[in-house]
């Protein structure tokens, strides 16, 4: 497989992860370097892991997963997006109990919470599993392919966090609602793409 073809495949697989990276940074009250590195690492790791799994298990298992992977991505991304919208609302319209708990809850509602990042990384990398099934027929080393796919995703997600942080700072960090809407939109897009293609 020519390097350019593999790079184009990597770019295509990384687009949803990049969009989620931008949305996460936009929604965050502040973005630290370790937040950007953790997000980029997790997204790159799972984007490299999924094709490896697809390559290892073959087409039969991947086809079984493809029957419900779009629903899983829809539920995970939509659920996190809805949770972000709820948290944005309670953050901007706190009740008496919310005020007392605001400091304690700030870390849990962060778009860069490790548990949330893992869920989003899995949700945005499921489609890469099917790509892994095709790798043996393309005469490419799985180690090379996984490294390039993961590396491209890492770089684009890190760039996405930087872009999202700039937007967030320019608009005074009031775009957490937009971040939730982007995740819901990505979940709907994934679902519709598979349903309309069926």
From TrEMBL:
Family matches, as InterPro entries: Mntp/YtaF, Put_MntP
Transmembrane stretches, start-end: 37-57, 141-163, 175-192
Membrane topology according to the record: Multi-pass membrane protein
Keyword NADP appears in the UniProt entry: no
Chief place of localization: membrane
Signal peptide (from-to): 1-19
The keyword Transport belongs to this UniProt entry's keyword annotation: yes
Keywords per UniProt: Cell membrane, Ion transport, Manganese, Membrane, Signal, Transmembrane, Transmembrane helix, Transport
Stored PANTHER family: MANGANESE EFFLUX PUMP MNTP-RELATED
Protein family (similarity comment): Belongs to the MntP (TC 9.B.29) family.
Record-given protein name: Putative manganese efflux pump MntP
Organism: Hyalangium rubrum
Lineage: Bacteria, Pseudomonadati, Myxococcota, Myxococcia, Myxococcales
